[in-house]
Amino acid sequence: MVNSAEIAGKVLYQDERHSVIWLGTDEKENEGVVQTNQYLVVDGGKAALIDPGGVHLFARVVSAISRHVELDKIEMVTFSHQDPDVSSGIALWMGVTKARVYISSLWMRFLPHFGIVDLSRITPIEGSGRSLPLNLRFVPAHFLHSPGNWCVYDPISKIIFTGDIGAAVFPNGGQYVMVDDFEAHKKLIDGFHKRVMASNKAVQAWLRSIAGLDIDMIAPQHGAIFPREAAVKFLAWLKTLECGVDRIDEINRSGA
Ligand code: FE
């Protein structure tokens, strides 16, 4: 269970000028709705907001951010992919911040359907080499699960924000923030990854993309956060996972 202190959020990393914050939860907000995680990176007073989420949790996330930084210090909003639980709040976030929004070029022309008129503040993510605000880096994660999908790596905290990679689906009232016991956690990630991630070939490509990164924590957009030891176990589990089109006949037979 999430304890009352954690409902408002949790600092995942902090030094003199840099911090990373998980922006809390509201278990009522999650009833009948897929639970989501939002993250804030603050560096020298500037901020980046990672996968800020859908319209219905906007007010809670604004108030959680305001405990750490003023909204006009947010320079960057990133979307790992186009799903509504990641990006449907885009018009609201562009209204209350001056931030540039980063998303795969595949999805730029879909965003106006969430109410955006001006695309000039939206930047397509073009590659992992480009220098970004707060020294963040994009890492390709295409087809995990979306065809245009990016992770964000923070080299200071060594946290990688992985979107749906590592996502868990909690039973009602069963949410927790950190993965303490990977073996017990596996049952909450297994079905989602097998059905939603495109294939083991896509997994292998992502593992090559992150091979050179020092990863202290894996922070997904749903479920719980993996500290280093659990992250190592998760990556080993993922490496051999048959998923998506690897299991297409079984998925078709199940009708799900
Ligand atoms: Fe998604």
Could you walk me through the main structural features you see in this protein, from its secondary elements to its overall organization?
This protein has 256 residues and is an alpha/beta fold. It has a single domain (4-254), classed as Ribonuclease Z/Hydroxyacylglutathione hydrolase-like (Metallo-beta-lactamase, Chain A, 4-Layer Sandwich). Helices cover 25% and strands 21% of the residues. It has a seven-stranded mixed sheet with strand order 1-2-3-4-5-6-7, with helices on one face. It has a five-stranded mixed sheet with strand order 8-9-10-11-12. 40% of the residues are buried. It binds fe (iii) ion.
What is the highest CATH level, the class?
Alpha Beta
CATH-defined architecture: 4-Layer Sandwich
Global shape: globular
What do we call the CATH homologous superfamily? Ribonuclease Z/Hydroxyacylglutathione hydrolase-like
Q: Provide the domain count.
A: 1
- Cα-based radius of gyration, to the nearest Å: 17 Å
Instruction: Please give the order of strands in the largest beta sheet.
Output: 1-2-3-4-5-6-7
The CATH topology corresponds to Metallo-beta-lactamase, Chain A
Report the mean per-residue pLDDT as an integer.
94
- In terms of DSSP E residues, the strand content is 15-25%
Give the tally of β-strands: 12
How many angstroms does the end-to-end distance come to? 29 Å
Can you write the helix and strand succession as a string?
EEEEHEHHEEEEEHHEEHH
Quaternary:
single chain
- Which sheet architecture does the biggest sheet show? 7 strands, mixed
Ligands, deduplicated: fe (iii) ion
